[in-house]
């Protein structure tokens, strides 16, 4: 016991000395930190998630319920949305509506459609960037639905087959049950499922796929290897009627489609495709800076030119060809001076979609309409829905009014 009492303080002292020695060795061998050796690493913007997402192609699909009385609102939406593909169902266009087709195309876009013949309503169309190649494959009508097929060239080795479907709802003018549609649609799917291009089916099916009673359509799609992507209500009454369908084996859709603006009683759907955005078309304009011409120098050169000097006998003599020689000298001199003082400039610009009749009143009403839409989507009340519809109709009326005034002034300016 006595030996242990004498040894314990010595052991503690030895341990303390050993710990201090270890700490001293660690500090002496550890490399010092030099802040001057620290460098900044700049991340490439193209590798960020947002940059990658913004460079993807955008698809938009909506049911217009007639584009004739909404052409101004649709044009405004195309300019705001700036999607690359707009699928439009129920266009209600006839073969004679060339003016309406022209109104739907801002700079940088084209419109191609398949009008519904011999019936009221219907019709499908595609608004697309003019840098994309779109070709019609097939179109037709069944007893229960109509369709149109388009091949969209995304790259030199990549095509996308877009199939647009419109099924009219059951009514007095269209007494065709959903069972007939399921039968016809299943037969139609057999003809397009083996297409070599990636397949995208979209449109207005007028079937409440959010109801348990509509599982027949979802079961049909699943049985043939198709997938339905829309999970949000697309109608003002809270049902999902507009669909986007792809093959399970095709990786086309980046994320779940989102509802955006109510063009009619149907909301538009937006989604990103796993494909780079098409190139924006550029145009070249030539111009001269006439306002920057130095008039004093121009006057001096004009005075010193041969036009203002005494003409030779060859030019002034009344002989055949004398007037032609004078005219050639006149054109040559003025062309040389114009190119000297105001040379031709070339301006390259991107074809950006714009609404020529957009004004501050429309912009203010648009903000009020957005606020009303957000309120209705939050509360889901009938009163807020009525307010939203009222603001939407007011917006459409103002746009149609502004468009009419714009074209009236445009025509008057050329008649004067």
Query: Largest sheet, if any?
Result: 6 strands, mixed
By CATH, the architecture of the domain at 53-276 is named 4-Layer Sandwich
Low-confidence runs: 1-7, 41-50
Strand order of the largest sheet: 3-4-2-1-12-11
CATH class assignment of the domain at 53-276: Alpha Beta
Instruction: Let me know the average pLDDT.
Output: 82
Share of β-strand residues: 15-25%
C-alpha Rg (nearest Å): 35 Å
What global shape is seen?
Answer: extended
CATH topology of the domain at 53-276: Deoxyribonuclease I, Chain A
Number of strands: 14
CATH superfamily of the domain at 53-276: Endonuclease/exonuclease/phosphatase
Q: What is the succession of H and E elements?
A: HHEHEHEEEEEHEHEEEEEHHHEHH
Structural class: alpha+beta
The percentage helix is 25-40%
Q: What count of helical segments does DSSP give?
A: 11
Distance between the termini: 125 Å
């Amino acid at each position: 016991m006595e030996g242990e009492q004498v040894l314990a303080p010595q052991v503690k002292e030895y341990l303390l000395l050993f710990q201090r020695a270890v700490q001293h060795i660690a500090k002496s061998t550890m490399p010092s930190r030099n802040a001057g050796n620290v460098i900044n690493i700049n991340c490439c913007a193209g590798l960020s998630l947002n940059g990658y997402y913004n460079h993807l192609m955008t698809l938009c699909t909506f049911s217009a319920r007639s584009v004739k009385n909404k052409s101004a609102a649709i044009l405004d939406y195309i300019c705001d949305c700036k999607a690359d593909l707009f699928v439009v169902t129920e266009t209600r266009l006839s073969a004679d509506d060339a003016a309406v087709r022209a109104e739907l195309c801002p700079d940088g876009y084209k419109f191609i459609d398949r009008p519904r013949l011999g019936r009221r309503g219907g019709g499908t169309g595609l608004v697309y960037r003019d840098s994309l190649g779109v070709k019609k494959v097939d179109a037709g009508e069944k007893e229960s639905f109509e369709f149109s097929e388009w091949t969209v060239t995304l790259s030199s080795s990549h095509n996308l087959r877009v199939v647009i479907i419109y099924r009219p709802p059951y009514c007095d003018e269209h007494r065709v049950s959903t069972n007939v549609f399921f039968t016809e649609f299943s037969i139609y799917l057999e003809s397009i499922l083996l297409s070599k291009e990636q397949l995208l089916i979209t449109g207005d099916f007028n079937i409440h796929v959010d109801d348990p009673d509509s599982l027949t359509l979802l079961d049909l799609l699943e049985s043939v290897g198709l997938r339905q992507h829309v999970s949000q209500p697309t109608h003002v009454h809270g049902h999902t009627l507009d669909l986007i369908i792809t093959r399970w084996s095709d990786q086309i859709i980046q994320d779940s489609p989102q509802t955006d603006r109510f063009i009619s009683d149907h909301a538009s759907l937006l989604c990103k495709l796993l494909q780079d955005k098409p190139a924006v078309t550029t145009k070249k304009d030539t111009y001269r800076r006439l306002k920057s011409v130095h008039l004093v120098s121009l006057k001096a050169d004009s005075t010193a030119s041969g036009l203002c000097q005494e003409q030779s006998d060859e030019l002034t003599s009344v002989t055949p060809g004398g007037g032609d020689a004078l005219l050639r000298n006149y054109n040559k001199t003025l062309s040389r001076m114009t190119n000297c003082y105001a040379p031709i400039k070339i301006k390259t610009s991107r074809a950006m979609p714009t609404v020529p009749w957009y004004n501050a009143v429309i912009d203010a009403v648009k903000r009020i309409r957005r606020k009303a839409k957000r309120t209705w989507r939050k509360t889901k009340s009938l009163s807020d829905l009525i307010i939203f519809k009222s603001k939407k109709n007011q917006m459409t009326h103002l746009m149609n009014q502004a468009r009419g005034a714009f074209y009236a002034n445009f025509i008057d300016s050329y008649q004067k």
